[in-house]
Design brief:
Layout (H helix, E strand, L loop, with lengths): L12 E3 L4 E3 L1 H7 L11 H8 L3 H18 L4 H16 L10 H19 L11 H19 L6 H21 L5 H18 L15
Antiparallel strand pairs: 1-2
Length: 214
């Protein structure tokens, strides 16, 4: 039976979230990113308890690549950083197009420029060059509006700082890896790790962040 997730490889693992049998590659790469895995999934439990050595090394490399662009962010900005990336990961381009690193850099740069201009009292919408980047920029702007509508206090200047960090990250990763989706893949891995950490049991109750999540 062909994996229903990728439509290419043979399905070998029973996925309780999809109620279908998927391939091991989709299970490993889409777990907690595109697939909403239940906490009692045996494959999820095994991955948390015994992460392969190569996975740990990859995580260390990912953090090292991102650190220069995010080291100046505050805790609130760091949370907003992941909110924007969640929107990017869930973004579905129209037709047969796909999101590449340049689209992310263009979209975040355009929205950041618009917000920076607005913070100076001038209303002007900057537009990315590519159509996929334009649509992604629209989703990032919508997300920011949702955060504010739910009570989140995010200034234009603060959001612009975070978007510039994403732009810089996409550009820096491209210098190391010429693949046009290297940053997209890196962020997918990072979101998977962050979600796994967020679902782990907490020993102490943490103070809720003032940033409201949509």
């Amino acid at each position: 039976m062909t994996c229903p997730s990728c439509g290419q490889r043979k399905g070998r693992r029973a996925c309780p979230a999809l109620s279908q049998t998927i391939c091991s590659v989709c299970c490993a790469t889409k777990r907690l990113v595109e697939i909403d895995c239940p906490e009692d999934c045996p494959h999820l439990t095994a991955a948390r308890e015994h992460p392969p050595a190569q996975v740990k090394r990859q995580q260390e490399r990912d953090v090292a690549l991102l650190y220069p662009s995010i080291r100046h962010l505050t805790e609130r900005q760091y949370q907003l950083f992941f909110l924007f990336h969640t929107a990017i990961a869930r973004h579905t381009p129209e037709g047969f197009t796909r999101i590449v690193d340049d689209d992310i850099a263009q979209a975040t740069a355009a929205v950041a420029s618009t917000l920076e201009t607005s913070s100076r009292g001038v209303i002007y919408e900057h537009t990315p060059a590519s159509l996929p980047a334009q649509r992604l920029a629209g989703e990032l702007t919508t997300l920011l509006g949702q955060i504010r509508a739910q009570g989140g206090t995010v200034s234009d200047a603060e959001a612009a700082i975070v978007l510039r960090a994403i732009e810089q990250g996409a550009q820096e990763v491209k210098k190391v890896d010429a693949n046009d989706t290297s940053y997209v893949t890196l962020i997918a891995r990072l979101l998977q790790v962050r979600r796994a950490q967020g679902n782990a049991p907490k020993e102490t109750e943490q103070k809720p962040s003032p940033l409201i999540l949509p």
